[in-house]
């Protein structure tokens, strides 16, 4: 019974951490910016990978519990911050396509994880710590490469008021040329946001004017999980 309880915690702590990460992601991306938030999150994910990877050598199941919780928090933050950052640094004509790729790679990641988890590969008695530490590899890759990318132009202009930094980031991302139309769009969005109240989760649920939109999002999200895409 104790063993069953521990493994249940190992599985569920990831989801519980994911909820915490999702709830924190809005505040963190607004305070630190999408790029810095992703970089700090990579450090958390690498720490989680080290905890789970060395848990067998340390003979401490508490390391697995802590690592899984940190992995969940990092995944919750990453899922939101990454989509925002990828969408904001992409040109307008590619933005929809770029946003959809996150779902594709999420499904691809699950597929790769299931394949690596086979007993013939990393799911054996000797190699399971390596399997649990695999999540640190993408985080390490992003930690090395992301510093060469600029911060999100909308964040620089809307949150920092840095118009020159925004123009420099746009030129670095999209090349030289006339990008005044994109800057004007960001300015319009900034003006709109000034007159818009930011709602908390509880206020959003209670707000009658958003009730049908909320129903639609919940139904869509639930049916995506029920359609069998994870099994595919």
Automatic annotation (TrEMBL):
Can you quote a single GO CC term?
Answer: plasma membrane
Q: Which one of the record's GO molecular function terms can you name?
A: D-glucose transmembrane transporter activity
Topology in the lipid bilayer? Multi-pass membrane protein
In this protein, which residues make up the domain named Major facilitator superfamily (MFS) profile? 1-232
User: InterPro entries, from UniProt?
Assistant: GLUT, MFS_dom, MFS_sugar_transport-like, MFS_trans_sf, Sugar_transporter_CS
Question: Where mainly found?
Answer: membrane
Protein's GO biological process: D-glucose import; dehydroascorbic acid transport
Q: By its UniProt entry, which PANTHER family does this protein fall under?
A: MAJOR FACILITATOR SUPERFAMILY (MFS) PROFILE DOMAIN-CONTAINING PROTEIN, SOLUTE CARRIER FAMILY 2
Protein name as annotated: GTR5 protein
Q: Which organism is it from?
A: Cisticola juncidis
């Amino acid at each position: 019974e104790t063993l069953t309880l521990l493994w249940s915690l190992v599985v569920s702590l990831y989801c519980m951490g994911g909820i915490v990460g999702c709830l924190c992601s809005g505040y963190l991306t607004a305070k630190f910016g999408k790029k810095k938030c992703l970089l700090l999150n990579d450090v958390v994910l690498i720490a989680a990978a080290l905890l789970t990877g060395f848990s067998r050598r340390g003979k401490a199941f508490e390391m697995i519990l802590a690592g899984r919780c940190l992995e969940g928090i990092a995944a919750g933050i990453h899922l939101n911050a990454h989509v925002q950052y990828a969408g904001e640094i992409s040109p307008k004509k590619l933005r929809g396509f770029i946003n959809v790729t996150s779902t594709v790679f999420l499904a691809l990641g699950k597929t790769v994880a299931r394949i690596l988890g086979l007993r013939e590969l990393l799911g054996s008695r000797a190699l399971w710590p390596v399997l649990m530490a695999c999540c640190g590899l993408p985080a390490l890759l992003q930690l090395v490469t992301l510093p060469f990318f600029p911060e999100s132009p909308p964040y620089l202009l809307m949150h920092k008021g840095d118009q020159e930094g925004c123009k420099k980031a746009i030129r670095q991302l999209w090349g030289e040329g006339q990008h005044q139309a994109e800057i004007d769009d960001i300015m319009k969005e900034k003006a709109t946001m000034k007159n818009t109240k930011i709602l908390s989760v509880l206020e959003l649920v209670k707000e009658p004017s958003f009730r049908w939109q909320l129903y639609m999002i919940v139904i869509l999200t639930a049916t995506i999980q029920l359609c069998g895409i994870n099994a595919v």
